[in-house]
Specification:
The chain is mainly α. It contains 14 helices and two strands. The protein is 67% helix and 3% strand. Helix 3 packs across helix 4 and helix 5 crosses helix 6. The longest helix has 19 residues. The N and C termini lie far apart (116 Å).
Length: 238
C-alpha cells in the first residue's frame, strides 16, 4: 500500500473513481463492481445450491414447483435466485424477447411460455395438416376452447386466419376458411344472373353447402341476385 501511495497514486485514484461510480449506479449488472470493490454476483455456495434446479429450468418445461420439489430447494428461494441472477432465462421462458417490454411483475406475465407452447403444439400441428374448427380440435386434444383460441389469435395469426372466426362485409361472424372458400361464388352470385347450382358446379363446390352458407350469412346477396333476374326479365319483355 505504501508503494502504491508513493509511486502509483494514479492507480489508487482510478480505483476510488471506479468504486464511486459503482455506488452511484442505480441498477447493478452481474459481474460489475460494488461500492466496496467486490463483484456483484452470487456466492459460490448459492450457485452450488441451485445448480441442479437451474439445469432443469434451462433444459425442461417443468414448473418452478416441480423443480423445487425434485431438487429440495424452496420455490420462492429459487424464484428469487432466477429473477435476480438469471433474468434472461426467465424472460426466455415467458416468451419475452425485449426486456424493455417486460412487465414489472414477471410472475403475472401471460406470454407464450415453453410449457404452454408444448401444451398446444400437437393441436396446432393437427390443424395445419387438417384445417377444422378450433372448438373441434380443442375437444379432440382435451383443451379449453377459449384459452386455445386466445393463444392462436396471439401467436398463430396466419393459422387463425384460416380456421378462426371473422366478420364478413355484412357484420356477421363467419368461419374464415369458409369465407375464403366461398368468396368467389358469392361474388358471382350477387353480381350475375347465373344459377347458384351452376356456379357451385363450375367452382367445384357442394351446392347445398354454399346455398346454406349464403342464406345464413349473405341474405343481401340473395336479394341482389333476385333483383338482377327481375331486371333481366323486364329487359327481355321490352
Amino acid at each position: 500500500m505504501q508503494h502504491l501511495r508513493f509511486y502509483h497514486k494514479d492507480v489508487l485514484q482510478q480505483k476510488r473513481a471506479m468504486r464511486k461510480r459503482a455506488k452511484e449506479e442505480k441498477y447493478k449488472k452481474r459481474g460489475g463492481l460494488l461500492g466496496n470493490g467486490r463483484k456483484y454476483e452470487p456466492s459460490a455456495q448459492t450457485i452450488n445450491k441451485y445448480a441442479e434446479a437451474l439445469t432443469l429450468y434451462k433444459n425442461t418445461v417443468m414448473t418452478l414447483k416441480e423443480i423445487a420439489d425434485q431438487t429440495g430447494v424452496t420455490t420462492e428461494g429459487f424464484r428469487f435466485y432466477l429473477h435476480k441472477w438469471h433474468k434472461n432465462l426467465v424472460l426466455d421462458h415467458l416468451g419475452i424477447t425485449d426486456e424493455s417490454q417486460s412487465p414489472k411483475d414477471l410472475r403475472k406475465a401471460r406470454n407464450r411460455t415453453k410449457r404452454t407452447s408444448l401444451k398446444y403444439q400437437d393441436a396446432i400441428n393437427s390443424i395445419k395438416q387438417n384445417p377444422r374448427s378450433i372448438a373441434q380440435v380443442a375437444n379432440e386434444f382435451n383443451l379449453q376452447p377459449e384459452s386455445f383460441r386466445q393463444y392462436l389469435h396471439k401467436y398463430e395469426p396466419e393459422l387463425i386466419s384460416i380456421v378462426g372466426m371473422g366478420q364478413n362485409e355484412q357484420g356477421k361472424r363467419t368461419m374464415c376458411r369458409s369465407e375464403k372458400k366461398y368468396k368467389k361464388a358469392i361474388e358471382l352470385y350477387q353480381t350475375t344472373t347465373e344459377d347458384l347450382k351452376s356456379i357451385a358446379t363450375r367452382l367445384g363446390l357442394v351446392y347445398n353447402s354454399i346455398g346454406g352458407y349464403i342464406r345464413r350469412n349473405y341474405p343481401d346477396a340473395i336479394t341482389l341476385h333476385k333483383k338482377l333476374i327481375q331486371e333481366q326479365k323486364t329487359t327481355y319483355k321490352q
